[in-house]
Structures are given as structure tokens and as C-alpha cells.
Structure of Alpha-carbonic anhydrase domain-containing protein:
Amino acid sequence: MIRWVIYALCSLVCFADNPFDALNGWPEMHPPNFCEGDLQSPIDIRSSQAAEVILPPLRFENLLCSSVKVKMMNTGTTVDFKIGEEGVVRPKMIGGPLEIHGEFQFYGIHMHWGTKDHYGSEHQVEGKSFAIEGHCVHFNTKYRTYNKAKTRPDGLAVVAFFWKAGDKHNHKIEKMVQRLQDIKYPNKSVSMTARESLGWLADLETSANYYTYPGSLTTKPYTENVIWIVYPQPMDISPSQ
């Protein structure tokens, strides 16, 4: 299947010089010169700096299985989704740019948003920002745990996706949005099935277009060991949601 591979890192989206109001989940910068790394993320993705390549299909397995339970939690800064440790079915991602690295196990999803509907994403696409950017974090199963994998050169893979704010109501996220009312306060959480809370991810599984590049974590310690898979086509979300 044809996918886009970024062969030259595009402009780094560095918020260090932006007004505080524009920062999206970056209240402090440590170290202050973190933008000087060779493979730092996020970036402004430009199609002019990418090449089409043929890769094996990228597959998400067991992510929407009805037996998989998801804890949705208000961390105080974002909404976090984690799979219960008691589950015997572990969602994973294989294929695509990960083919030579093995299987990557689902670790969690978290969101990034800003104070304005048109500015909240970390990555940009052709210079454009989106209201929300989600990160679906996976770790290489050959390291057995996330904590071990996060320090290895091929340890992590993150799927990034966007939501754009507009008049169109997104019914696919309605169940998830309704349960957000139950976690208004920090450290509150609710349990849902993966299909109820993450069913909207099925749109990514059927998408034939994504960008991939080697980059870094966007939070401390900013390690450059992340295989990024970025879906440029945003999903819809209404202001009321």
C-alpha cells in the first residue's frame, strides 16, 4: 500500500517563542534548548518534503474488541485512555513502517488541545493547526514493558490524529463525550468498553493516507526514539462536543 514517508524533516514546530496563550500543553520548557535536537517533534508536515512509498498494510488488532476495557481519566491536564492490566486481550499495531521492528502493543491515548478552536494540535500539516491532536502510544513488545521500551532506539510508535472544530456534529464520539461529564474533576475516571470509548478509531484503520517519520517524544525527556505515524485528514467535532 502506498504511504508518505518524510525524507527530510520539515520545520520543527517550536513553541518556545510563542505567547503563553498559544502554548498547547507546553507550560514549561525543559531544557530550554530542546529544539536543537536532530529528530525533535512535533514538526510542520509538508508534502513537498515527503515521498510516496509502498509499505505493507498497517493493522490495528484487538483495539475495538468488546472484551477490552478502557479507563478514561481526567489527569488534570488532559483526557487519558488506558487499557486495564487485567485484560488478556492486548491491542497491538503491526505492519506499515513498523514491519521491520515487530509488534507494538497499545499503551494509551492522550489528547492535546489549546485555548482556541483553531489552534491546539502539536503537529501542523502544510502550516495548518487543528483544534485537537490525539496521540495513540504503542511500545515494542520485544522489550515487554513500556518503561523498558521508552529508552530503546526502536522502542515507541505513536499514531497522531486530528479533530477540526466546525458545525458538523460527530456522532461517532457521542458516547465518549457523554461520559466526559462523569470526569469533570482531576483524577476522576470511568470504565468503558473499547468499542464505546474508542470506536471512532475505526476511521483510521480504513484510511489509506498517512505520513511517517522518525522523531521524538514531545514531553520530557524528549528522547528521539519514536516512529511517528500521522494521519493528516482531521475528524470532525462540534463546539458543543
About this structure: Confidence is low (pLDDT under 50) at residues 14-32.
